[in-house]
Amino acid sequence: MRFVNPIPFVRDIGISKTFYCEMLGLAIKQDFGNFVMFETGFAIHDGKALETTVWGQTSPLSEPYGRQNILLYFEHDNLDALFERIAGNVNLIHPIETQSWGQRVFRLYDPDGHAVEIGEPQGGT
Fold first, then answer.
1. What is the per-residue pLDDT for 78?
2. pTM here?
3. Which CATH number is 112's domain given?
4. What is the pLDDT of residue 124?
């Protein structure tokens, strides 16, 4: 068995697709309308469509899908430039900080309230 990737539920696939493409610079590999796979392997899925696929029905709740219980982690080669470009256009959790392990990161919320961390590459792959 191998783990492939998490697929966050999103309320509005168009808004989320724009956010991940225009704000974070991800390129789309495949777009199936209610499911979008990016070239990095990260993917998003329309929440109501995925609820129906998984559970056979949609939830009557209209709460945001992001519940501050998962962190989507990305790395970027030029953290300072990315931060300068998007900081005024996103809901920041905090600006660039150096973590206790020495990595510089910043965190923000995506349109559904999922926490997103973007850090400098930690070396080695």
1. 97
2. 0.89
3. 3.10.180.10
4. 55
